Amino acid sequence: MSEQDVQDWIGKQVADNDVVLFMKGNKQMPQCGFSMQVAQILGHLGVEYKDIDVLQDMSVREGVKAFSNWPTVPQLYVKGEFVGGCDIVREMFQAGELQEMLNAKGIANNAQTQTA
């Protein structure tokens, strides 16, 4: 795939899925601690999401960094918006901001009344 094809494919995944996590490994078997933390947070919140293993395709691994202008993986997208990587997602979760954002965007989760 060309760089543009990769960007188009990433854009389609982000547009077609309410919540997308570009990660190392998958939600059942994360391949790095940072990906595991974000997957655990989403799992704790009961959020349905599409997981994309960037280790399966180097063009996607590099392409998602260019797509978001963010240098690391994992990367979380909600309703087409780039949320951030592990540190940002963890901080938002601990402050209750992630749950607020999910609720505001109409993303079902089981933590409407919970905070970390």
UniProtKB/TrEMBL annotation:
Record GO terms (molecular function): 2 iron, 2 sulfur cluster binding; disulfide oxidoreductase activity; metal ion binding
InterPro entries named among the record's database cross-references: Glutaredoxin (IPR002109), GRX_PICOT-like (IPR033658), Monothiol_GRX (IPR014434), Monothiol_GRX-rel (IPR004480), Thioredoxin-like_sf (IPR036249)
Organism: Methyloceanibacter superfactus
Sites where the protein binds [2Fe-2S] cluster: 32
Iron-sulfur recorded as keyword: yes
Key words, A-Z: 2Fe-2S, Iron, Iron-sulfur, Metal-binding, Redox-active center
Short name of any one Pfam family annotated for the protein: Glutaredoxin
Superkingdom classification of source: Bacteria
Similarity comment: Belongs to the glutaredoxin family. Monothiol subfamily.
Protein name, UniProt field: Glutaredoxin
Chain ranges of the Glutaredoxin domain: 19-83
